[in-house]
Hints:
Layout: H1 9-16, H2 25-39, H3 55-70, H4 75-86, H5 93-102, H6 107-116, H7 118-143
Helix pairs in contact: 2-6, 2-7, 3-4, 3-6, 3-7
Amino acid sequence: MTPTRAATPTQTWLNAANFLPPVTGAAATAERLLLLLHYGINWDTGWVGRRRELYWDHHLPDRVRVATYTGGADLDRWWSTVATDLESAPSTKEQRLELSVLLREDSIPVLTLLRENTTALVLRTRIVAEAVQALRSTTKAATSPRRQK
Length: 149
């Protein structure tokens, strides 16, 4: 009997937005990298947390796109550039493991999509993040002890 694998962090987040049509190949890799980037940001003390109003429309897409040019043709360098710019780092062992696997994917197709389809990929990341937040809010409300009226 083969042991079942636990869902990766990005699979868990994507499950919250299961209404989105799935993407495959390089697009799936790009999407998962952006999710890990987003969820690795230090929102409490980092500069991005103080500039949230411009995050989705300016900071995230601009830095993702620029890093595809300055990071060369290599996902490792792209990640280092954009993660440093946004002060992002995987916060769990599972996130680090998934990132290490994704960074070994074929760089050129992923970087091309990150450069040419930035808006669509960032939009999908935002939709997933909002779905995760809504799910967390619903779960928290359902489990919090409240007095019934």
